């Protein structure tokens, strides 16, 4: 087991999950006479949002703090207790169980202290904490973290009336081949036969019914039903790779009148036998992540095959579209059968979004005074909706790139969800002095100030996202203004500037500068080294190491708060003054200089992509006012993909004299890649001499690179992990990129 005492402060990262149901389980042993504690965080970066806090007192009592409420419980001190936390983000609910007893259920996306938070599972924090008056000493063992899958669909047809058509009654899951619900293609609900209890679905005559499976592109699935074929009749079904029927048959299965069966996949026919007049268990396990599938009849494996192949043979699409219950049979046989207890469930694999970009970089040449559009494909190869935001960040000449070493006092010693308070100033400081320079701010005139209710280091910040900062790229952040009220003489103060990272977390520390404050007044701090504005997010912060419980050092306006105007940090994470305090920090940034000509943009700048789908983004170059030369930038993606929450796509633009650009038959670069998918090696041919060939993964990392100096190349890909990649060739006329699948 793990001993928790003293300064122990452990984080189990849980992946910033935003979809699905998860269990976080462990056992605790609270030593006799001591207390214990743990919390769950909404964000993997700790200290941003506490979702729930659980305290164990030495007397055997405990408290759960969730959504501003306190729930009491009791436990066995000096004995092992089993703790189970269940978090369902699809329904936004959570539960805590102890030794098999439910202690509390609440809305997961609320914060422990009350108020709305993020519907996200970030981490487990095992901290040496305890209720007031107790010392912490406890042990932890048997830690498990697992995703729990629930049926996506189950149907026994008992909720319908005999004579109903299923596609009429439940169009969410059922449709007919020609989209004619209620027609002869629809499935009729009858009580002539049933596996459980009395109703089933009949397939005969013109029935051509589609069970919609949602065009899944990732994950592992179980598709199961019971099937009954009367003596003298035949049965049939097929799987489609696409939910829209008639595009690709994944597999076809025949049940013949003589009791023989045929399973058709990848151009092969696999024979089996079955029994008439009995209910058969038909089961399919389809693993899209590994591209394999299995079909079982009454628990016996009939066949395993590569799922993405087509029934008649040849490569197809690795996608799960639907089941076609069709009244089909071989010539001379009559189709007639029943199905019951239809079951569809995800059993494993991807439930997170996963972003993929094509191409993974841009390197283009256009004529001075012109514009040009390029296509960018933003794909979601994961199992849940992908959300993305694109920011343009320019590489500015003389950009500050040295590493900032934090001051000795800037290591946080705080622990816990620190409390803060606000006071109205009897003589508010009013508005900041006027300036002709560009001012970044959200605040109005000073009205009040904020401090913590106990000694602690903390920071207040205003975040200015790329959408605000981008028009000022090329200027410099030269000054920071902040209203200071009443810090203790022992308190240190400093301004800090951070770069871009996640929505809720700043990036690289760009500047840190101490200052001696003027109390009850606006303080203007001139940065020793100005910060070039690149177009990325800027976090402008004021730091203090508050040494008493009575000061309120940093000023605020009268509100209402703006989302990015009230960030506060008392530890490694960041949160908001809201819901407790509705105000913005009196923190401002002053920009001086001249902005560069913006030459790069995208349309759209944000989007939501369903699992298995993609967005077409137009990337536009504008060289209308650019001088000859080479310009570089990054398209920065912030996403809800837990693996790639922050992703950069490099862009290089060369502006030249337009004479001759694109002229001649050689200007178009053509590339042939084969075999694709590839296993051991891939061949590349081009109509132009290839200078360099590179293979990138989906986040732009180079996994292979060769110098070619020929129109053809053979590249060994043995040893490269299976997946989707992008192969790029560079020629004297430019470059081109193509998708490559390695198996």
Walk me through the topology.
Layout: E1 2-5, E2 9-17, E3 21-30, E4 36-41, E5 50-56, E6 61-66, E7 69-74, E8 80-88, E9 93-98, E10 101-107, E11 121-127, E12 137-148, E13 151-155, H1 166-169, E14 174-176, E15 188-190, E16 200-204, E17 208-216, E18 220-228, E19 235-240, E20 249-255, E21 260-265, E22 268-273, E23 279-287, E24 292-297, E25 300-306, E26 320-326, E27 336-348, E28 355-358, E29 362-367, E30 371-380, E31 386-394, E32 420-424, E33 438-440, E34 448-452, E35 456-464, H2 466-469, E36 476-484, E37 493-498, E38 509-514, E39 521-532, E40 538-546, E41 554-556, E42 567-569, E43 575-576, E44 587-592, E45 600-603, E46 606-609, E47 614-622, E48 629-639, E49 646-656, E50 671-674, E51 681-696, E52 702-716, E53 723-731, E54 734-742
Parallel strand pairs: 29-49
Antiparallel strand pairs: 1-12, 2-11, 3-8, 3-12, 4-5, 4-11, 5-6, 6-7, 8-9, 9-10, 13-27, 14-17, 15-16, 16-27, 17-26, 18-23, 18-27, 19-20, 19-26, 20-21, 21-22, 23-24, 24-25, 28-30, 30-47, 31-46, 31-48, 32-34, 33-44, 34-41, 35-40, 35-42, 36-39, 36-44, 37-38, 37-40, 42-43, 45-47, 48-49, 50-51, ...
């Amino acid at each position: 087991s793990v001993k928790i005492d003293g300064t122990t402060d452990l984080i189990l990262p849980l992946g910033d999950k935003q979809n699905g149901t998860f269990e976080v389980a462990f056992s605790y042993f609270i030593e006799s006479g001591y207390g214990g504690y743990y919390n769950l965080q909404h964000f993997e970066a700790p200290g941003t949002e506490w979702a729930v806090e659980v305290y164990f007192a030495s007397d055997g009592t405990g408290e759960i703090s969730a959504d501003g409420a306190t729930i009491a419980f009791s436990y066995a001190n000096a004995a092992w207790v089993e703790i189970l936390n269940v978090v369902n983000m699809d329904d936004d609910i959570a539960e805590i169980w102890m030794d098999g007893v439910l202690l509390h259920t609440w809305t997961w996306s609320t914060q422990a202290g009350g108020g709305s938070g993020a519907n996200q599972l970030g981490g487990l924090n095992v901290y040496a904490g305890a209720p007031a008056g107790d010392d912490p000493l406890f042990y932890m063992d048997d830690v498990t973290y697992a995703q729990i899958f629930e049926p996506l669909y189950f149907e026994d047809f008992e909720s319908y009336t005999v004579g109903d058509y299923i596609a009429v009654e439940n169009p969410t899951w059922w449709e007919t081949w020609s989209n004619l619900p209620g027609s002869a293609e629809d499935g009729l609900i009858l009580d002539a036969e049933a596996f459980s209890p009395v109703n089933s679905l009949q397939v005969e005559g013109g029935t051509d019914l589609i069970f919609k499976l949602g065009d899944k592109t990732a994950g592992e699935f179980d598709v199961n039903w019971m099937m009954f074929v009367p003596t003298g009749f035949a049965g049939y079904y097929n799987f489609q790779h696409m939910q829209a029927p008639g595009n690709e048959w994944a597999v076809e299965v025949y049940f013949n009148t003589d009791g023989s069966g045929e399973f058709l996949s990848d151009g092969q026919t696999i024979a089996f036998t079955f029994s008439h007049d009995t209910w058969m268990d038909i089961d399919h396990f389809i693993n899209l992540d590994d591209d394999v599938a299995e079909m079982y009849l009454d628990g016996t494996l009939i066949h395993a095959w590569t799922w993405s192949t087509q029934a008649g043979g040849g490569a197809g699409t690795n996608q799960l579209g639907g089941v076609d219950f069709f009244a089909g049979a071989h010539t001379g046989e009559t189709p007639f059968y029943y199905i019951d207890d239809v079951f569809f469930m995800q059993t494993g694999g991807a439930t997170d979004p996963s972003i993929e970009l094509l191409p993974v970089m841009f390197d283009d040449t256009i004529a001075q005074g012109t514009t040009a559009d390029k296509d960018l494909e933003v794909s979601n190869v994961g199992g849940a909706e992908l959300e993305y935001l694109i920011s343009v960040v320019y590489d500015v000449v003389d950009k500050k790139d040295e590493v900032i070493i934090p001051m000795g006092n800037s290591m946080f010693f705080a622990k816990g969800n620190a409390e803060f308070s606000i006071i109205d100033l009897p003589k508010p400081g009013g508005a900041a002095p006027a300036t002709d320079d560009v001012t970044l701010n959200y605040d109005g005139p000073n009205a009040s100030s904020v401090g913590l209710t106990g000694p602690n280091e903390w920071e207040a910040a205003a975040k200015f996202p790329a959408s605000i900062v981008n028009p000022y790229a090329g200027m410099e952040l030269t000054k920071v203004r902040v209203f200071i009220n009443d810090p203790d003489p022992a308190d240190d103060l400093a301004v800090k500037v951070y770069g871009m990272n996640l929505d809720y977390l700043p990036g690289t520390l760009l500047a840190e500068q101490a200052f001696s404050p003027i109390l009850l007044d606006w303080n203007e701090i001139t940065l020793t080294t100005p910060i070039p504005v690149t177009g990325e997010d800027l976090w402008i912060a004021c730091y203090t190491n508050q040494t008493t419980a009575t000061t309120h050092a940093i000023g605020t306006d009268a509100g209402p708060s703006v989302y990015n105007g009230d960030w506060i940090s008392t530890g490694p994470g960041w949160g908001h003054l809201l819901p407790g305090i509705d105000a913005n920090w009196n923190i401002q940034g002053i920009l001086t200089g001249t902005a560069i000509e913006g030459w790069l943009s995208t349309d759209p700048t944000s989007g939501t992509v369903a699992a298995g789908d993609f967005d077409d983004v137009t990337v536009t170059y504008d060289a209308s006012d650019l001088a000859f030369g080479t310009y570089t930038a990054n398209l920065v993606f912030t996403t809800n993909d837990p693996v790639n929450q922050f992703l950069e796509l490099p862009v290089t633009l060369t502006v030249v004299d337009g004479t001759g650009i694109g002229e001649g038959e050689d200007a178009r670069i053509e590339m042939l890649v084969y075999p694709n998918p590839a296993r051991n090696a891939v061949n590349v041919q081009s109509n132009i001499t290839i200078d360099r060939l590179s293979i990138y993964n989906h986040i732009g990392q180079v996994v292979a690179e060769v110098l070619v100096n020929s129109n053809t190349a053979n590249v060994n890909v043995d040893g490269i992990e299976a997946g989707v990649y992008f192969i790029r060739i560079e020629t004297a006329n430019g470059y081109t990129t193509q998708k490559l699948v390695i198996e």
